[in-house]
């Protein structure tokens, strides 16, 4: 297969450390463009590749060292983008894992709380979703309209589920 000039991309495992560091912004940009085009699984794959490059570099650093922290701060926005893709692909448990790992390091990350709250709501972890949304409001009160919308949606889904359960279990104990 003949590819146009500049379109070939080396696999991350074959890159030098310097090439990985230089490739990440371009991979991130490509992920953003794919996301804007609605190609969510493809965007997730790009974000994953960029994260893999940075994680590979991070493994060579002493945890907690300035270089390690700098790499971790580059990983976090990519991981949040990846989580947004996974939310749209309805892979909620992956979102819960990644957002929790971000929050273990960065307790004030509003986006991680919001995405984790949405994932909790999707898998019927009502108390956890409400706690995450409350934390979002505590950290950034300007997000009240967005959080209120999510909470209303969760309440509506709960009422719907309760109604279905009443119908389903009606007369079961007679």
TrEMBL record:
Stretches that traverse the bilayer: none
Keywords: Repeat, TPR repeat
Purpose: May play a positive role in AHR-mediated (aromatic hydrocarbon receptor) signaling, possibly by influencing its receptivity for ligand and/or its nuclear targeting.
Native source species: Mystacornis crossleyi
This protein's record includes keyword Repeat: yes
TPR repeat copies, ranges: 110-143
Lineage: Eukaryota, Metazoa, Chordata, Craniata, Vertebrata
Repeat found in the keyword field: yes
Protein name: AH receptor-interacting protein
Family matches, as InterPro entries: AIP/AIPL1/TTC9, TPR-like_helical_dom_sf, TPR_rpt
């Amino acid at each position: 297969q003949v590819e146009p000039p500049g379109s070939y991309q080396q696999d991350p495992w074959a890159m030098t450390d310097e090439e990985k560091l230089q490739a990440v912004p371009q991979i991130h940009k490509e992920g953003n463009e794919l996301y804007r085009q609605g190609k969510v699984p493809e965007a997730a794959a790009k974000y994953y590749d960029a994260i893999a490059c940075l994680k590979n570099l991070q493994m060579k650093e002493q945890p907690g060292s300035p270089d390690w922290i700098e790499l971790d701060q580059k990983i976090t926005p990519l991981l949040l983008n990846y989580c947004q893709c996974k939310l749209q692909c309805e892979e909620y448990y992956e979102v819960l894992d990644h957002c929790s790992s971000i929050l273990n390091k960065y307790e004030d990350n509003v986006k991680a709380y919001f995405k984790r709250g949405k994932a909790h709501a999707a898998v019927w972890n009502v108390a956890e979703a409400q706690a995450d949304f409350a934390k979002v409001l505590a950290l950034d009160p300007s997000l009240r309209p967005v959080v209120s919308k999510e909470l209303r949606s969760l309440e509506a889904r709960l009422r719907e589920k309760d109604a279905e359960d009443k119908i389903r279990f009606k007369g079961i104990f007679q």
